[in-house]
DNA sequence: AAAAACTTTTGCCATTTGGCAAATAATGAA
DNA sequence: TTCATTATTTGCCAAATGGCAAAAGTTTTT
């Protein structure tokens, strides 16, 4: 299958956070590698040191771990037009306690550690742009998680439906239930009640 | 009352994230202002554009907001040796939806927007240091919030006791209950059961 | 010390959510 | 298509948590 990816989404996204000239844009495009994942494929695995950062051109990923009970927990979903990386492990070069899996078929634009270093060394604005992106993504996560604690399960589900209108019916209930912090059967009943 | 603050904690904290020479350290000290808050005082208020960043030399702050039910929610606590700022509002200069209140008497080292700009312009490592601090703080928040959804109320309370061993008995139950996402009476019962 | 204001605990009962296992439904492979 | 596998729903009941208001306890003010 021939893959056609213009990388426009990536470039437009970066441009939201800083200016780039055409030469810089071309360099970024050359450093990015297209990676196609099928639903269920893993982008990164627990126990390994992540070596890549991905921009999601199409599709949805989820970040997961196993809690002390051995239950698989979906920590969060990442959708199109966002970067996916385990910041902790990537920056500190320590093995990740989390893994990243494709929830749907995905098209990713992947940067290796080396590519990122090159970009950082070559494009003066790069670090600033990445900084802003990182900060925004983290703040969003906090702002999404925080109110969830104060809401009941049904409300959390309804809010999820709003944020990912067409996802809820395409992914296993168990993924969603663990993200919402409820059991699968409870979620099934909540769903029914709507 | 005479206030004696060496700012050692602040400087040591900054040095964890980057190197600074004595001249730079002195500049930072000169730019910081000591602010004493009494328990219950507000550091910043909702609806206003925050103009300051605080390093907590002593004491504990909490970041709060009112949810759609009109309930006051404690989004998180910030304790000694951490910076407190509403990143969203501060960076974008938009009115905050949150307010920050002293949970205990506090000694803060406060930087104004202008001071921060000066430091950023004068100390070449400054932005990098602030970036690392910000990222670390945000990642910690996500990592603390995320598993809470998967735990029951009692476990959340026990974990809080571990993290803030001597705080739980010094703050109103209501603060803690809203942080843990449970009602005050439930927390009272949980406490009793231990 | 007494009163007022505020915080925490408790009782009572309703509602929500969980746990487990069986039944159904949906999906994918042969 | 048929079988096997996996995902979802459901029943039954237990456990956790909430809602509300009154009681008990604390702190602050006068």
Secondary structural class of chain A: alpha+beta
User: Percentage of helical residues of chain A?
Assistant: 40-55%
Quaternary: homodimer
Mean pLDDT of chain A comes to 91
The tally of beta strands of chain A, per DSSP, is 8
| Overall spatial form of chain A | elongated
What is the count of helical runs of chain A?
8
Following the backbone from N to C, one meets helices and strands of chain A in this order, namely HHEEEEEEHEEHHHHH
**Would you state the CATH class of the domain at 8-123 in chain A?**
Mainly Beta
Strand composition percent of chain A: 15-25%
Q: Largest interface, per-chain counts?
A: A-B, 28 and 28 residues
CATH topology of the domain at 8-123 in chain A: Jelly Rolls
Q: Tags for this entry?
A:
homodimer, Jelly Rolls, four-stranded antiparallel sheet, 8 strands, DNA-binding
How would you characterize the overall build of this protein?
- The structure is a homodimer of 194-residue chains.
- The first copy, chain A, has 194 residues and is of the alpha+beta class.
- Chain A has a domain at 8-123: Sandwich (Jelly Rolls), CATH 2.60.120.
- Chain A is 44% helix and 21% strand.
- Chain A has 8 helices and 8 strands.
- In chain A, strand 4 and strand 5 (72-78) form a beta hairpin.
- Chains A and B meet through strand 5, helix 3, helix 5 and helix 7 of A and strand 5, helix 3, helix 5 and helix 7 of B.
- The structure holds a DNA duplex (30 and 30 nucleotides).
């Amino acid at each position: 299958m021939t893959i056609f990816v213009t990388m426009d989404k990536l470039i437009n996204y970066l441009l939201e956070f800083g200016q780039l000239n055409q030469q810089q844009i071309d360099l970024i495009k050359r450093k990015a590698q297209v990676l196609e994942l099928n639903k269920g494929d893993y982008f990164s695995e627990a126990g390994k040191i992540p070596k890549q950062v991905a921009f999601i051109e199409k599709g949805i990923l989820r970040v997961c771990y196993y809690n002390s009970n051995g239950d698989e927990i979906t920590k969060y979903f990442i959708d199109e037009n966002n970067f996916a990386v385990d910041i902790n492990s990537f920056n500190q070069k320590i093995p990740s306690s989390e893994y990243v899996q494709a929830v749907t078929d995905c098209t990713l634009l992947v940067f290796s550690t080396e590519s990122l270093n090159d970009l950082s060394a070559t494009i003066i604005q790069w670090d600033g742009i990445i900084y802003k992106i990182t900060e925004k993504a983290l703040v969003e996560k906090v702002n999404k998680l925080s109110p969830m604690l104060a809401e009941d399960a049904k409300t959390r589900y309804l809010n999820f439906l709003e944020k990912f209108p067409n996802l809820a019916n395409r992914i296993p209930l168990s993924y969603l239930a663990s993200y919402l912090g409820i059991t699968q059967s409870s979620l099934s009943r909540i769903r029914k009640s709507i």
